[in-house]
Amino acid sequence: MELITHFIDGQEVESKDNGRFDNIDPWTREVRTEVALGGPAEADLAVAAAREAFDSGPWPRMGFAERGQILHRLADLIDANTHELAMADTMDMGKPIADSSSKDVPRSALNFRFFADHARMSSAETLPMDSGHHAYTRFESAGVVAAIAPWNFPLMLETWKIAPALAWGNTVVLKPAEDTPHSATILARLAREAGMPPGVLNVVHGFGPDSVGEALTTDARVDRITFTGESNTGRAIARAAAGNLTPVSLELGGKGANIVFADADLESAVQWSIKAIFSNAGQVCLAGSRLFVERGIYDAFLRRFCEVADALVPGDPKDPATQLGPLASAEHYTKVRSFIEGVAADGGTTVMGGIGEGWTVRPTVVTDAPADARVCREEIFGPVVVVTPFDSEAEAIGRANDTPFGLNAMVFTEDLSRAHRVSALLCAGTVWVNCFFVRDLRAPFGGVGDSGVGREGGNFSREFFTEPKAVVMDIRSEARR
Ligand code: NAD
Known about the structure:
By secondary structure, the protein is α/β, with parallel strands linked by helices. It contains 15 helices and 21 strands. It has a 7-stranded mixed beta sheet, with helices on both faces. Strands 10-9-8-11-12-20 form a 6-stranded mixed beta sheet, sandwiched between helices. The longest helix is centred in the first third of the chain and has 25 residues, at about 95-120. The termini are far apart. The chain binds nicotinamide-adenine-dinucleotide. Nicotinamide-adenine-dinucleotide binds next to helix 7 and helix 8. Keywords: Oxidoreductase. InterPro entries: Ald_DH/histidinol_DH (IPR016161), Ald_DH_C (IPR016163), Ald_DH_CS_CYS (IPR016160), Ald_DH_N (IPR016162), Aldehyde_DH_dom (IPR015590). This is Aldehyde dehydrogenase.
């Protein structure tokens, strides 16, 4: 059986104590590979390698163009290995292969290309001063970055963190989620092939609490911690990082509101709303899991929404025709099932869907749920949507903002003034109007409230992964004499 190893200091290595854990294919529910089980010892080795590569190696000392060339080569290698990378994520967590190969892997390559170019083009800012002084800002590499990733978009979210970290000259220790280790080790091999020096990108596998993950968050040699995952894990990591005052970036959970006004293009709103909740079997932080529909179109919208949801093709995620795969793990399936089983007791009605075979969940639509029902308040992270009618713009905004989360929201309307007005009033890091998940990598990405701390993307990633330094010079030669 294949073993997925750590990747430390340019080498594929097992754990010191030879510990391993099983990697389970959520479709077959069988053990597919074994994975090296890291602990504090592996975190220590990986951080030491990253520290040495940062303190004495060539990576932070290269020019942006030379580093950029290596990152572009890595992007090309990602493209050339699309099938292997896509299959790794698909078999690790059940994402349909059509999505992993046409969306996640190309976006991962783009992450490297974008940040390589962005860093080269934005490496300093000049601030001519009226006083006759000249100030400029240098964006210097921060040091060793610990990147801790979730399982729902494994390669895509890992590269979203490590691409800017590397482009800005940092070295990285990546800990992928325990359910999705495979693509990270392949990526590290490709980085070596692209010419990345040893110790610049390290990968350690294992769990979070009392394991390799936690060890990374308490290590004083780590200069930045970038984390994507659950809000409660984010709290634990912020507490751990506080000991060393290590800056953290936290991309956390969501409970996205999707507001459809009566003047919206109904068919377009239905299609986007379907994507917003059923893509990746609802295992999306940005999922539009609370769908608010203006009463005048509520019945027509719901009818069409259920029709389209019913036509989604479930099945083996390795089949290119599949649109809805299994949930990622037994543990996650059990969690989502408990939400569905609790709907009736909370006063809601399940109008379609429910539990399927194995670890699958059918597209599930819930109505009549009171605002304090668990399905309305907590992140389900599955293909479960709660649909609620509303009567006024103010009511829709009030309901949308009635959540501790604030990652994103969607608005469907043909009224331009309303689109701007409502977007301004929604508490969310991103508002999509008449669309969903359309990204410009320069734009800020992140959440308010329980959805996170900080922003990623373009200059926002630059702020986090660098130590900006101000240099102020007196350029008045006569005044200095
Ligand atoms: P999770 O919090 O369980 O785990 C994420 C990672 O953290 C894993 O690698 C895990 O091993 C590690 N970890 C857990 N406890 C740790 C600890 N104490 N110290 C260090 N590391 C620890 O999250 P998940 O279940 O993998 O992912 C799903 C969650 O991620 C959802 O809440 C989802 O909304 C969120 N998410 C957010 C975004 C975003 O951009 N805001 C994107 C994707 C997913």
